[in-house]
Amino acid sequence: MKTLTKIWNWILGKTNIDEKVMETVSQVKKEVEVVKKQVNVVEQKVAETKAAVKEVKKSANKPKGSGKASAGDVKPRKRYYPKKKGSSAASAGKVSK
Asked: What SS3 class is residue 44?
């Protein structure tokens, strides 16, 4: 009877271990699925960032006179200062430059 009890306990121990292993395997599978989804999201964000960087490089390397005006192509405007009322130059008809 002692031998039968030892064998029974050994079998129970093995099944408990098997159940724990099966639980761990199922948890790991779930975590792997979650990580795969997160990796896909990160890959999409990286692709979007690469596209944005490519556009910035493309616009930065654009030669002058390519059709669109850039900040360097625009000439500064002359400032307009209106004549003050009652000034001596304005009333005398003289224009100062």
From this structure: helix
